[in-house]
Amino acid sequence: MSAVVVYAPVPAGTHPDNDSPDYGSTALRHPKQPKIQIPPSSTEALGPKIHAVRFDEEITDLTRNGGDHAIGERIVVHGRVFDTEGRPLVGAPIEIWQANAAGRYVHIGDDHQAPLDPAFRGVGRMRTDQAGRYRFLTVRPGAYPWRNHWNAWRPAHVHFSIFGDCSLSRLITQMYFPGDPLLELDPIFQSIPDPLARQRLISAFDLGATVPEWALAYRFDIVLRGARATPIEPGR
Ligand SMILES: [Fe+2]
Question: Which of 13, 122, 212, 221 could connect to 194 by a Cys-Cys bridge, CB 3.0–4.6 Å?
């Protein structure tokens, strides 16, 4: 006998359509056929947990890569991760990656004419604690051009990947910053139909989490599924 795991449905408009015409590359990488719904079963409930994944090392400070300090505005990015029922996800692997303060990634495909920063790590990873909390020290990423259309610039953002209790509960998304004028112009951010869902991708300035004389702070809470699910990227 197999148990059936019931997931809360994702409300319409919460996630982008697979094909978002204004976000040009989605046309090249989304399924052309409708999804086949396979009900989650005991495999997901009782099988090996993705939490068994091991990091070689946890990286919570992206601002140091050896002895030097990364250039840019130092910030704390932190928050909590919840499941459908509002319970904190304990020990969930969480990864972030981002451009440096000049808007350049440490990636062979990034040819943006902006300087690399050897002191900036670009990637962080850790597990959530007993309250579902995570915390990274990084620098505020710069905007960068991405050639989706003429004069296209991505708003400053941090990429996130989080695993829940099974592989069905992996979320890949992006965190933005409040007050960024590029948000209204960004086809990726705007591909999420529901304006309230879009707002859930914007972090909140968090005075209480700032480090005096050292770093400002932004809070970004994440919900993996359900009515308040954090929007997921197209085609994921
Ligand atoms: Fe990016």
Answer: 13
